[in-house]
Amino acid sequence: MSSLGTSRPMTGLPRWARLTATALLVVAVVSLPLNASPFVNLQLSIVLATAVALLGLDVLTGWTGQVSLGQSAFYGIGAYAVAVCTARGWPLLVGLAVTVLIAGLVGAIIAIPAVRLRGYALSMVTLALPVVAVPLAKRLDGLTGGSPGLATRTVSAPEWSGLDNDQWRFLVIALISAAVFLLVRNVLKGRHGRALATIRSSEVLATAMGIPVQRYKVGAFVVAAACGGVGGGLYVVAVQFISPETLIVTFSISLLAVLVIGGLRSTLGPLLGAAFYVLVPNVTGAVDAGQSYLLYGLCVLLVMFLLPGGLASAVHRVLAGAARVLPGSRPAVPDLPSQHPIPAPPLPEREVR
Amino acid sequence: MLLFYQVLDGLVSGSIYAALALAIVLAYRATGVINFAQGQMAVFSAYLAWSLTTIGLPVWLAIAGALLLSVVVGAFLERVVMRRFESAEPLVGIVVSIGLFISVNGLVSLIWGTSLTQFPAVFPAGSIELGDVGITYVALGTVVVLLLVIAALQLLFMRTRLGLGFRAVAVNPESSSLSGLPVGLLLMTGWGLAAALGALAGTLVAPALYLQPGMMDMVLIYALAAAVLGGLDSPFGAVVAAWLIGVVENLAGTFIPAIGNDLKIAVPLVLMCLVLFFRPQGLFGRVEVERV
Amino acid sequence: MNLLEVTGLTTGYGSSTVVHGVDLHVAAHGVTALLGANGAGKTTVLRALSGFLRRQGQLVFDGHPLPSGSPSRVARAGIAHVPQGRGTLRQLTVRENLAVGGLLRRDREGVAQDMAHCEDLFPVLRARRGSQAGELSGGEQQMLAIGRAFMSRPKLLLLDEPSLGLAPRITQELFEMLPRLRQDWGLAVLVVEQNANLALAIADHAVVLEAGQVVLAGPAPDIAGHDDVRRAYLGD
Predict the structure, then answer these.
(1) Count of CB atoms within 10 A of residue C62's CB?
(2) Could you say which of B83, B98, B228 has the minimum Cβ distance to residue A253?
């Protein structure tokens, strides 16, 4: 529907501007931790971890149109998998591989009944996941450390780098996040993205076009679960600790909210949404600790009122403006065919009351 | 005998879930949005009632006052916040109501703080003896209040002009406006009524739980499950589902040691998933077959 | 004295204008037919009149400017609109649909009388009073929609394609009934109809739209006899 716009901020820019921007971004990411305090590095690491989880949720909810309130459960699976593995001295990559396996498997199991449902029934079934996950994490205390949680040393900066641990962790997380983003983006760029978009607009049409709807929907669930798991794993890399309290239901609900706030179906959306989730409470808390939650909630409402396409749509608008003035620009393509394979059905005119 | 008390306990908690589930169904029928903030609004109302008792009102009067104020709050939120998003896709409605949830939670913490506050007892202590079983006044009172609420709603919806107006607007606002019904006003009243029902749930549960900003979070989960399990647009279904959830959860928690108190919440949720798998429209929901 | 006098009506959906400066009127107790091909803007005119669309132009109803922006207020001013195909509240019973029509009236006895009158006119509504409106056949739903419109005691009835999807025999009955309703209730009618023959048979005035503009207007017999109209809409 029109109210949740998509945006691809870079498409309108000329090639040299895109390359420069990408290069600047890489330099910025690499040099950022060197000058930042450990607290800032930790915050930015959590932003990236959350962004990976949101990216997965975007594949499921944004691209496939299946509203899920259960992303924190997969986040939890990943967090505990990485924590348990690294606590045993296994390398991080083994932990992440275990994460992808378990989270993906659970995602597939959940998906089989869930793809039959739509709308609110689906959101309720997915909401059940974090509700059950928290007491389950407490119950399995032999593995998870129970209510007090589980502390672990994930990665430490090697001698040769001359970096502090917080700086090294940020770089590791940035590298893995970038890899996940590139992977998912490339998968969505081609016919898979088109197929998902078709399913979102009409499952009947997608079936008629020969798209294996059920398989795609299960696939979206698995990708969402795996990304959610990796996000949780990266969170543990950053924080070196996980407890059931991290996974409370409100976190799961917030993930969906900040995804929409960041913007659906855009690379930038999960990043901006994650930044909103992690950083806005810091800002509002700095204004007044007592009012921080109220201000945070008002920010959510404000974005919904003012930017129906999410924060990414605002960035997109700014960049589209820049693209018009930069030399060498090609005309911006507002809607790639992959986004809207068929014209959206006409909306009934808004009722006047 | 243990079984009897466990079922009774289940019905009592189920009645509280039912009150909030009714609120969710009512708001959903009015505006097509599942209001995730319904529980938080109920917390706000319960605190309002508490504040009224601190200025010397008897608890029943304070609750009545809070119910009335809640109608105003609910109507206000519908008009000012939700109205803009009612024709948008469900995802937008969910996110806006989540924003509302966070805001109201913050507002409650800001006004009343986050520490536990004792809410005065609504029903007298002690129990009524029937043969060899004793039923506490709290249990009896909670169930009776819910039954009265159901009767009152039934009267309102099926026997009054206002109720007919509500139902017409719930079915089709545009078509209703062609008969001159004040659609906006009816939607506001619908949300107001929902807020009052939520307030009732909040004040019924408050004496047992102590007042705190997050006190309705778990009740909200049960109420959402009941609303969806019952079929979302069916008040009757919501009540039956809420009782079912309350009883099943209690029995499973008590009689199946492996589940215990901490995991008993999983039982009604798994039950809900199973039912939805076979009946995606819920137990009492209607499948609207479009006639072209 | 005209009940409805529309001058220079311009309206459309969002930023696209569909109707450009249309003039039309409905005489008191009169029937005006609004004719035109598919997409000429007939339905848009009705939706603008009943307040669903933003509009420009002068609209005088019963001596007062027509309220804009609120379908409810238009309905309360005395205009009942029976929209195309979906004039009933599907999940409510037949009885309840009629009751919703008269919901804002204060005279309880008058409402009861009118409901009885409706059921006399359309006996099927009495026979199926307890059924859900959505279970009725297309023709029965159309009767219910008209009955519901009458229950508000309007001065003007807007009928949008009442024959759409109806069997010819039922359409015939419906149109034969319209003049009678007009006598019984003393109301005026603005009817949009693809089937121009039907509409012109009961109308006393007709307006022909093309691409959102009036191309022809006059007494119904003149329009019916007009060569262009006969060619374009009457299938001659």
Answers:
(1) 17
(2) B98
pLDDT-based confidence at residue A231 (cuts at 50, 70, 90): very high
Q: How many CB pairs under 8 A join B and C?
A: 70
Residues of B in contact with A260 (CB under 8 A): 91-92, 95
Q: Classify residue A6: in a domain, yes or no.
A: no
Residue type, A24: L
* Inter-chain residue contact C71 with B177, CB threshold 8 Å: yes
Residue A336 contacts B, CB cutoff 8 Å: no
**Contact flag C87-B291 (C-beta cutoff 8 Å):** no
Taking the Cβ of residue C112 and every Cβ of chain B, the question of whether any pair is shorter than 8 Å is answered with no
Residue A9 forms part of a structural domain: no
Higher pLDDT, residue C69 or A47: A47
What's the number of domains chain A is made of? 1
Domain CATH for A252: 1.10.3470
Distances (CA, A) of A332 to A11, A294, B241: 7, 39, 53
Full domain range(s) for residue A62:
15-325
Residues of each domain in chain C carrying CATH 3.40.50.300: 1-78+154-236
Is C72 an interface residue toward B (CB < 8 Å)?
A: yes
Q: Does C52 touch chain A (CB under 8 A)?
A: yes
Residue B33 — pLDDT band, cuts 50, 70, 90? confident
Look up the ipTM and state it: 0.88
For residue A335, being part of any structural domain is answered with no
Is the confidence at residue C107, as pLDDT, over 80? yes
Q: Could you tell me the residue ranges of all domains in chain B?
A: 16-216
pLDDT band, very low/low/confident/very high, at A341 (cuts 50, 70, 90): very low
**Rounded-to-integer distance, Cα A221 and Cα A201, Å:** 18
User: Looking at residue C131, what is its pLDDT?
Assistant: 92
> Which chains sit next to A, with 3 or more Cβ pairs under 8 A?
B, C
List the single residue in C with minimal CA-CA distance to A353: C70
Confidence (pLDDT) at A16? 83
Residue in chain A closest to B95 (alpha carbons) equals A257
Whether the per-residue pLDDT at A351 is higher than 80: the answer is: no
For residue B6, what are its two tokens? Answer: 């466990």
C203 CA: distance to closest CA in chain B (Å): 24
Q: Assign residue A351 a region: left if phi > 0, alpha if psi is -120 to 50, beta otherwise?
A: beta
Mean pLDDT over each residue of chain C, to the nearest integer: 87
Distance, in Å, from the CA atom of B27 to the CA atom of B71, rounded to the nearest integer, reads 12
Q: Is C14 in contact with A352 (Cβ distance < 8 A)?
A: no
pLDDT value at A80 more than 90: yes
| Percent of all residues in chain A with a pLDDT value above 70, rounded to a whole number | 88
Q: What is the CATH number of domain C1-78+154-236?
A: 3.40.50.300
Q: How many CA atoms lie within 13 A of A216 on its CB side?
A: 25
Closest residue in B to A284 (Cα–Cα): B106
Chain B residues close to A310, C-beta within 8 Å: none
Which residue did the predictor score with more confidence, A42 or A346?
A42
CB A96 within 8 A of CB A84: no
pLDDT value at residue B80? 94
How many Cα atoms within 13 Å fall on the side-chain side of residue C47? Answer: 22
- Quick check: C72 and A349 CB within 8 A? no
Within-domain flag for A333: no
